[in-house]
Amino acid sequence: MEMNQSQRLPVPQQVAWEALNDTALLKQCIPGCESIEPDGENAYQLALTAAVGPVKARFKGRMALQDIQAPDSYTIQFDGQGGAAGFGKGSARVTLEPDGDETVLTYAVNAQVGGKIAQIGSRLVDAAARKMAEAFFTRFTEALAAPAPEEAEPQQDAAPDGGETQTTEEPKRKRSWTAWISKS
């Protein structure tokens, strides 16, 4: 199976790079992802549930980042086992190119599947892969485009003697989108 696609991200290249390396954010954006845990330098153990046609299975696998050229590109090597459902393995080349205040992410995936998943047929496998990629990029783009939490509004406090009210402002805190994402 081969898949090539480009996606416009509404953030500068460095922000996109940091987001692609934020495991908490990725866990929220990858459909069916249950966990992403470090497993050595630039390597991770993953668990996710995926459905391909009539076959639904829990996959456990490993991904490793290679050929890292921050903040421009890397290659993801991956393999996963889904028990009786089969397996998947392959690589994905991911590149980021700045385009004004935005970034164009391009990826090229080359993967092989085996077991029951392979018996389903390449059209269903390709359709399921494209659907997962579309769901990931929808979630990922929404997370990147999410506005920072609203600034604190001035509050009206009643004076202790029942007189005039005073306006006090809460201290403004600068919060990054990653802090906002990790709390949701």
From TrEMBL:
Biased composition, class Low complexity, residue ranges: 144-161
SUPFAM superfamilies: Bet v1-like (SSF55961)
InterPro entries linked to this entry: CO_DH_gsu (IPR010419), START-like_dom_sf (IPR023393)
Region (Disordered): 144-184
Top-level taxonomic group: Bacteria
Gene3D superfamilies: 3.30.530.20
Designated name of the protein: Carbon monoxide dehydrogenase
